[in-house]
Each structure stands twice: as structure tokens, then as C-alpha cells.
Amino acid sequence: MKTVGVTGASGLLGKAITARLEANGLEVVTFSRRPEGSSGSRRFVRPLDLGGLDALIHLAGEPILGAWTRARKRRILESREEGTQMVVEAIRSMQCPPAVLVSASGANYYGDSGNAELSEEAPAGAGFLSEVVCRWEGAAMQAESEATRVACLRLGMVLAADGGAAKLLFRLFRSGLGGRVGSGRQWMPWIHIDDAAALFVHALDCQRLGGPVNAVAPGVVTNAEFTKAMARVARRPAILPVPALALRTVLGGLSDLALHSIRPVATKATGSGFSFRYPGIDEALEDLFGAVHCRNCS
Hints:
Helix content is about 40%, strand content about 15%. By secondary structure, the protein is an alpha/beta fold. The longest helix has 23 residues, at about 70-90.
């Protein structure tokens, strides 16, 4: 494998994956909706040009965070389903298609599932995000053939110091405004950004990985446990719980991200030989934010 395409390469995870691919000596072709994309970029438009690619990583999609207006929810769904359909159409039209498509997906597939441990064989849940993931994966799997293997990585919350929800939460905790959400008993799937990038690259070459793959750290924690870990690394007490009713009133459906209990198990990832560098929440948060505290907050 020499050349890998990446859609959504300008995003937080896309940048981490691109850097890892290039560090491994692979040529990376990025895809952009903007006409002024980088010199190594192709347009993300129909018909999609996948010529010369040995593999494709598909990350493009409307960000989940933000106000869930009716128009925003439509963009969240359509950007994933229709964008993935563009990728599939291109793959199926090629005489020599990429050998593998690794598509982003979400652990929200399982919906609010209480304390149940969820392998990749667990059924889909209910709700908007579960529907989005079902249609997203359904589109991606249409690319599967004897020539092309497809893996859909069901990501938990990707923890990163320079973007995403974790950065916002750390600032909140540093301000002394952090606390558990609702009962705090809901399970929170997560993964360190370095492990997420490494797992995508691992999935390119690992023939054993196909279909849905739980892309979550082994140490899935409850919201209360996450709160304690974030408070420790922020060196602040977490004494301001956020009532579930208040969160739903302010955020509406977006509150599902914080209140739903999802406990996936990385069965396929670990079974394929993948080793998590940051399996536990304390070590992950300390790696991401411990140095930030020492440099800027002491």
C-alpha cells in the first residue's frame, strides 16, 4: 500500500491521521470541498476522483457539536449519508478500486443502553444519532466487494488537547465550573486522539477488520468517573452538577450526547492485535492536559 486518500483531512482527527500516514512513508491525497485545497488535494464533488488510490479513509461530515436546529440536523444526516454515497459510487464505478475503505462512524449507534456491555454485534438503539449512524454505515457497506474491504469505526468521544469537546471541558473545569452531568451513572465511550488515528491506520492493513469496529478505549468510564479524572488533571474541585432537566431545556436533543449511557467494548480492535497506548482515562487526560497545566496554569 502506497497511496491513501483521506476525506475530511482538515478536521481534528483528519490532521492526526494524515500526519501518521505520512510518518509511515505513505503518500496522502486529501479531498476538499473548497476549490483552493492544498496541492495534494482533490475536489470532493461528483464524480469523485479516486484514481491511483490503494485505500481510502472517509471522515467528512458536518460537525455534531452546535445547536441542533432542524436545518443543522438535516446537514448532519445528509453530509454523512450522501457524502458516503458519493464515495461508494466512485468505488463501484472503478475497474481497480481501492482495496479498503475505512469509514468513520459513531458509538451513538447503540443509543441509550444503560449498563449493557456492547460488542459490535449489539443491535442499534433509538434516536436521531442512532439513525444517523445506521444510515451512514449502511451507505458505506455498499462499497464492500471481493475487491474492496469495508470497516466502519464507531468512535467514542475523541479526546484531544487542541480541539473538540475535551478542550472545551478542560477550560470549563479549569474555571471551576465543571461537574457531573445528570446522575453521573451514564457510561461515556471515549478514545485518545493518538489511539484513534493509530486504529484507522491499523484498519487499513488488518484484513481481519471488516464491518463495524468499536473505536473506543478499553477503559470506558461513567460520567462521574470522567468528571473526577478531569477535575484531577485540572487541579480544581468538581462541585457543580448539571441537572439533566436543565441540560435538556438548554440544549434540547444535543443533550443526548451527555446523558445517554453507552458502554461499547473494543472487541474487534483488541482481537485484531491492536494495542491501545492510552487504555485508561487518567493517563489519557494527563497526557493531553497535564503539560498544559504545568505550562499555563500553575
